[in-house]
Amino acid sequence: MTIVLGFEGSANKIGVGIIQDGKVLSNPRRTYITPPGQGFLPSDTARHHRSCILDVLHEALELAQIQPKDIDCVAYTKGPGMGAPLVSVAIVARTVAQLWNKPLLGVNHCIGHIEMGRLITGAENPTVLYVIAYSERRYRIFGETIDIAVGNCLDRFARVLKIPNDPSPGYNIEQMAKKGKKFVELPYTVKGMDVSFSGILSYIEDMAHKMLSSGESTPEDLCFSLQLLHR
């Protein structure tokens, strides 16, 4: 039985998870929250992570009811993500691995998302996140974003509409989208299997205030429209 301790801090959420042979033993988290519309700066986010990461680590060990000697490997998010938070978490992961004499494994953030979905759903050879396929223990990229990531698009979209990031912008956009009734055409580009999301943001930044103040659309309508496009 293999027990892995993992650190994740690529954005405004810091989490420490403990996994044993595919079973989640613990997964406590803390989220850096800012006022709606402000987003979060890398330096402030890193400071938040440094202030609470040891508490989250202790909580993870207590919830899993294990001790450092039981851990076989330490893993951490090595990127992509926000530079300062990533560095802060990586330093703690490396320190823990050295102090406890454990092997250290850097994990790609995007692959972490995919493997999390595979673990939770039990899917075999899935096509995931628009662009990634997995078969015969290999990833195959059919297409990709040609400018910004879909997560970055959601974060900045939420910032323009002053949607809170507690617990996360994407979750709040989804809840508001359920109340939307009108589809608003938002510009986006598809080139073969590749997609572009920057046009959506440019349009929203230019037109959101006008559409909302005139009553032409509601924030819920815009969230609903964004959800339809991303599907």
Automatic annotation (TrEMBL):
Residues 29-227 form the Gcp-like domain. Keywords: Acyltransferase, Cytoplasm, Iron, Metal-binding, Transferase, tRNA processing. The keyword RNA-binding does not apply. Pfam families: TsaD. One of its GO terms (cellular component) is cytoplasm. It catalyses: L-threonylcarbamoyladenylate + adenosine(37) in tRNA = N(6)-L-threonylcarbamoyladenosine(37) in tRNA + AMP + H(+). InterPro entries: ATPase_NBD, Gcp-like_dom, KAE1/TsaD, Peptidase_M22_CS. GO terms for biological process: tRNA modification; tRNA threonylcarbamoyladenosine metabolic process. It comes from the Eukaryota. CDD domains: ASKHA_NBD_OSGEP_like_euk. It is an enzyme of class 2 (transferase). Its EC number is 2.3.1.234. Signal peptide: none annotated. One of its GO terms (molecular function) is tRNA N(6)-L-threonylcarbamoyladenine synthase activity. This is N(6)-L-threonylcarbamoyladenine synthase. It comes from Aquarana catesbeiana (American bullfrog).
